[in-house]
Specification:
Blueprint: H1 10-18, H2 26-47, H3 55-69, H4 72-88, H5 93-124, H6 133-157, H7 165-185
Helix pairs in contact: 2-3, 2-4, 2-5, 2-6, 3-5, 4-5, 5-6, 5-7, 6-7
Amino acid sequence: MDEPLLARPVGDLLDAFAEPTPAPAGGSAAALAVSMGAALLSMAARISIDHWAEAGSIAAQAEALRLRTAPLAQADAEAYAEVLRLRREGAGDADLGRAFDHAAEVPLRIAEAGADVAELAAYAAPRVKPSVEGDTAAAAVLAHAGAAIAAQLVAINLATSEGDERIRRAEELAAAAADAAGRAVA
């Protein structure tokens, strides 16, 4: 990947996802889904500033989550590329284990942010202006999708680490995001 994912025009980014290459892939898409959810929530809260006293605070929190999560699209692609490089080179189990460990940490961070965005959107949904209720629900659903994808990737990357607490944590985060998205859409 010569050009950073976030620097690409949307059409080029979609083309990169469609390429028959291993990265960018699901983890990058998960990070972007959570980031888009945070961006939508930020917009909905900003539109609601004259309607709801907490809207400015919610917008700031959503923006912080967006800024924290968007770079994880690149980080995930790079972490998985390192796993593939080590496999190609026939690296030892210890080096490969560390690479898989790092490749699991990135989607775990995506799942954490996804749960946070979904919960924030669920809180905001009944409070924003009616004209942006759908955007707030979309924010929660995108965040849930990203968290669910990320949780699956954590489990895949730690498949040989039986009983790893991070798998359970990622599953809990995805479930929390699902619950929050359900409340936001209701």
